[in-house]
Design a protein that fits this description.
heterodimer; A: about 160 residues; mainly alpha; about 85% helix; B: about 200 residues; globular
């Protein structure tokens, strides 16, 4: 192996050793190379020093950050718990509505058919009416959920402040 | 007989499952404990990602609100901190998108055409202001020189000590991308420190 290739390999192994680890044979080769090569030894030291500096860099925490956050989280938790019974009632109403819809489907179909024949409305129209009858509960739920989302405020404070 | 690694791995897995169960039930005490326990790590990560102490503080609170609301999505199969950082990161990306209609990756990746400028280069960086309260002036100056995308990956690997696959989960990128960013980030940090020392 020529000198340039040896340095390239050593520099690569120095980085690899810190990022994902190296095999024992590579480690042995690198140790032997570093004993002889001042340039690569310096590179290895610089890399270790850089990582050491990063690991020991300290960022001071703002005063009361945890307690302020805990307070906000507890408030939100309270809100969510208050809404839970309403939400449960909504889903229960939807479930009842769907069960009723399925049970009454044959009768509703006949009713639409009878109404269509009586008024002379084309078959496609009263069939569409029947389909619409089925989508009403889903539409209702969608509207309620959208209203809920709007009520929650949409954007958080920090997003509004930044605009 | 199981080795110490397996023992700690089982302990961590139990801890993650306990957290997952608690988050699903929205236990207030658990949330308080988690906020206390992870406050420094999350805040540090956010400062490095956003480059701003004030912004990091806002995102910190929003992250925990999101943890409360989406707690049922955490299954306890991965480390809690990896999930926490992923939530924080997504919030930052959403904010960036709302501001500039581009993703954080596109904005921060120096290999792309338009690297993100987290702060005006001519003004003292908020990150610098945060770090300058400390005595490690050389580190402060060097970290300022590193693009945010590399700062982030260096923090996750060498401060948070996440594994490469965990980082891939947090960043939503392939393992190969994580590795290449790590190598480049490490070189950028070494170069920046070397330049700072010169």
């Amino acid at each position: 192996m020529n000198s340039g290739n040896a340095h390239d390999r050593a520099l690569h192994l120095i980085a690899q050793g810190r990022v994902e680890g190296i095999a024992e044979t590579d480690s042995t080769w690198l140790r032997a190379h570093l004993e002889e090569c001042e340039f690569c030894t310096k590179h290895a030291r610089q890399t270790d020093r850089a990582l050491q500096s990063l690991r020991t860099a300290v960022i001071p925490l703002p005063d009361g950050l945890a307690s302020r956050t805990q307070f906000r989280v507890q408030l939100r938790l309270h809100e969510l718990r208050e809404r839970e019974p309403q939400r449960r009632a909504l889903w229960a109403a939807c479930a009842v509505s769907w069960v009723f819809g399925i049970a009454s489907a044959p009768y509703v179909w006949r009713l639409f058919q009878w109404f269509g024949e009586r008024t002379g409305v084309p078959k496609l129209v009263w069939e569409l009416g029947f389909g619409l009858w089925w989508t009403i509960p889903a539409l209702f739920v969608l509207i309620v959920l959208l209203m809920e989302k709007v009520r929650q405020g949409g954007e958080p404070d920090w997003m509004r402040q930044s605009k | 007989m199981p080795g110490p690694t397996m023992f700690f791995s089982t302990l961590m897995s139990d801890e993650a499952k306990t957290i997952a169960r608690g988050l699903q039930k929205r236990y207030p005490d658990l949330l308080d404990r988690l906020i206390e326990q992870y406050q420094y790590r999350l805040f540090r990560y956010l400062v490095y990602v956003t480059g701003s102490r004030e912004r990091a503080e806002d995102f910190f609170q929003e992250t925990w609100i999101r943890v409360l609301e989406r707690g049922h999505q955490y299954d306890g199969k991965s480390k809690f901190e990896a999930w926490l950082f992923a939530i924080a990161r997504h919030l930052v990306i959403d904010w960036q998108r709302s501001k500039k209609a581009q993703s954080l990756d596109t904005l921060t990746d120096p290999e792309q055409e338009h690297p993100l400028q987290l702060a005006n280069e001519n003004e003292p960086s908020p990150l610098h202001q945060v770090l300058s309260q400390e005595t490690q002036e050389n580190v402060q100056a060097s970290l300022r020189k590193i693009p945010a995308i590399y700062r982030e990956i260096l923090v996750l690997r060498f401060q948070e000590e996440l594994q490469i696959d965990e980082m891939a989960g947090v960043l939503s990128v392939p393992l190969s991308t994580v590795k290449s960013r790590l190598y480049r980030g490490l070189e950028a940090l070494r170069g920046a420190l070397q330049g700072g020392a010169a």
